[in-house]
Amino acid sequence: MAGAVFSLGFYVPKHGEGAKIVKAAEAENFGVEMNAWIHIDTSGKVTIFSHRAEMGQGVYQAIPQMVAEELEVNLDEVNIVFAKGDQKKYGNQITGGSSTVRGSYKNLLNLSATAREMLIQAAAANWNVAKADCYAEAGHVIHKPSGKKANYGELVVDASKLETPKNVVLKKRSEYKLIGKPMLRQDTKLKTNGTATFGLDKQIPGMLYAAVERNPRLRGKVKSFDDSAARKIPGVKYVVKTRMGVFNTYREGVAVVADSTWAALQGKKALKVVWDDSGFEHLSTDEIYKRQREALQTQEGLSFKKQGDPAAIIAQAPKKLDVMYETPYQYHSCMEPLNCVAHYQPDKLEIWGPIQAPDWVQDYISKEMNIPREKVIVNMTFLGGGFGRKAFMDYPHEASVISKEVGAPIQVIWTREDDATQGPYRPGITYRCEGVVDNGEISAFKVKLAGQNVSHWQGGKKDAPNRSASEGFLKPYFDTIKNLSIQDVPFETPIPTMWWRSVYASTNGFAYESFLDELAVEAGKDPLTFRREHLKEERLNKLIDKMEDVSGWKNRKAKEGYGTAITECFASTVGQVVKVSRTADGKLKIDHVWAVMDCGWYVNPDTIKAQIEGSIVMALGAATHHQVTFKDGIPVDKNFYSYQLPRITDIPPIDIYIMENDADAGGVGEPGLPAFAPALTNAIFDLTGKRIRKLPFDMATV
To answer: With helix as H, strand as E and coil as C, how does 96-129 read?
Structure first.
């Protein structure tokens, strides 16, 4: 960037005002570091910085598409690079919660329009013409009356001297040329010709490779180890005891460092480690769920939400529903296993890798290793999937510790088995749902959930309910269900848990939307009509109209099972309809899935469709194919031979529709997942009369 002469960015003042747009030359006057979102050099080359990770969800496309729209440049002429981790410059850089577009689109549009207006103003001044007679297009400013034309590169010096205008006028959506259009992704070519740099591709001079034998139980310690055989492997340089931070505890292990991945992995296999696993429980899967069910039957939970008196109505009702739903532990199963490069030096620590949260990594490692935050340099690469797992700090911390110990740059390689057995996992949760229907409406609704609370691993208050206890549940239900209670029964195990795609909505959605279906049946109502009657909001009713229309819901035929579910998370709502039937030989099959998303303002419909398709495939796997099980506190499912993923032959036709409105942008990467499992099991009930309340289940045995 040394040659860049026009750099424009924005920062958010600490006192909470809106984002301020500044030029590079002004940044110091404002007492802030320049975040340099946009650079334009004298050749007219535009460089845009992507402040968030690209793990397949489309950030690498969405940010440039937004900037190019208001800046008026051709997207294929824009150079895109990843920004380094730096919260002072870029604000929160966590790629999670489907937050990239919805959290920054207004600032990015304003920033880009400001840059455009400054370039137009510079051209008008040079030509001594009215600014109103000029416009920008394809990286040029054009004078309408004369046809005179100037490349952005010719204008950047003069534009950089101008005052930054305030309150620029943004385009109307009807004027967009790029936003809202199904454009090809900028990273597709890189990922298909092999030039994209993922974490495993990263190499730096003098780099060694490390493979770590970690304790299979999180809280266990290294008692002793015999490395004599490992050190005989050609290429092995060091064998060292190590550890990495996992929330409020540590996982210990022994690292074999070598001059190749092969030598490191062979050395790891040759290690003999004795573990000390005393002082904590070694639970198996059956015991975990037995305890959850018992807790739900015998304990009142911490109150997350209460209105009216549902308990009294349920106690007095002559007829009520009282059922339990169970969801399993899940592994993230990213196609790229964890890995990280770290180079510890006396004056700094530099990290490269597939990292979802570079600013979190900076914060954590700075404190853990007593290094000034600005000396922890975090570089993002492409990620081969993340789903929340790569928003964690453990694997960069481990690589940094090993690099410091051996005095060399290190790449830590995780095998698939490492990735599958170390966790943290999506928590397994059991739900007890009680309800009463009166005159076709819900008169009482009570839910208790027992499962591990991720915030407790982060030091959250254990006398406070899970703050995500209703995640996935549509908020308008709180207006129409007058007697409602949601409680969290505290439940803990030594098994580490964390975020998984759509977080608690992925499990809550199954329980809440399955139970709503059971209440609809109890009321003798059509499931979509029943939901509509309890969702008195115009946007939701339009979404239900669309679901009915595209799926042919009102024209359902005999021997066809139709199920539906509607969930909300990260400011987007998704409704799904699933159709199932039986083949001639009696096997259950999924015929079709229709998904309707209301995410408000959006960038690229192709990206949205890809994300919903991926979410549905992931949800199908979690509902019908795989789970993480434990025996004596150790994960049993170590690779895809037992943690089986859906195959292409398992995937039904999927039709996706996007609602059009002027609402603020919602998330896209995660909201498509929660509605699928309940829509599927509700469809199976509609066809077979069998109610599925435990996931995963085997389609072949229904």
So the answer is: CCCCHHHHHHHHHHHHHHHHHHHHHHHHHHHHCC
Encode burial over 597-636: b for 16+ CB neighbours within 10 A, e otherwise.
bbbbbbbbbebbbbbbbbbbbbbbbbbbbbbbbbeebbbb
Q: How far is CA 335 from the centre of its chain?
A: 15
Q: Per residue in 597-608, pLDDT tens?
A: 999 999 999 999
Query: Per residue in 189-200, is it b (16+ CB within 10 Å) or e — as a string?
Result: ebbeeeebebbb
Same fold, 6-193 and 202-279+338-413: yes
What is the CATH code for 202-279+338-413?
A: 3.30.365.10
Q: Mean pLDDT across the chain, nearest whole number?
A: 94
Q: Between β-strands 134-137 and 78-82, what pairing exists: parallel, antiparallel or unpaired?
A: unpaired
Helices and strands, counts by H and E, the chain = 20, 28
Note the pLDDT of residue 19: 67
Query: What is the torsion angle, in degrees rounded to the nearest 10, for the CA atoms of residue 175, residue 179, residue 181 and residue 182?
Result: 170
Three-state DSSP state, 458: coil
Radius of gyration of the chain (CA): 27
Of 1.25.60.10, 3.30.530.20, 3.30.110.30, 3.30.365.10, which CATH number belongs to 299-329+426-701? 3.30.365.10
- Give the class (CATH, top level) of 6-193: alpha beta
197 pLDDT more than 60: yes
Q: Structural domain boundaries of the chain?
A: 6-193, 202-279+338-413, 299-329+426-701
Q: For residue 322, what pLDDT is reported?
A: 98
pTM above 0.90, yes or no: yes
DSSP string spanning 23-42? EHHHHGGGTS-----EEE-T
pLDDT digits (tens, 9 = 90+) for 398-445: 999 999 999 999 999 999 999 999 999 999 999 999 999 999 999 999
